Input
Amino acid sequence: MDSDFRALQLHPNKPGLYILAASHELDHSSPSSARTLLQRGIRLNPESVDIWREYVRMELGFIESLRRRWDVLGIKEKADENREGAGSRQDIMQGAIVKSVMNSAVQGAVGLFNEMMIGCETIYSAAER
Output
């Protein structure tokens, strides 16, 4: 794993390296480390559709693993509303994290689109002169 981190240090703008490192962390039962890696990759490469896609996929997998674990433990998704954290658990199971990630991806895409349009305006106005 040290070589993965070294590769990320040397090539922070290579989205595939973040995906590879996050996959390694997931394979070794460390979803929080995988999440951190993908978030760092997104901060440094906000335009990377691949990283956003893998981040959404990872969060969906996290929800599914929670659902399976709760089935085994006999925890109901719509458990007693009065229990501490019941509302938060229900929000997570209904995809609140995934929705948040997708909204962030869309906002990033809109920002990138706006930057591209400003660049096009600059080029177009320079060409008119």
In short: Residues 96-128 form the longest helix (33 residues). The radius of gyration is 19 Å.
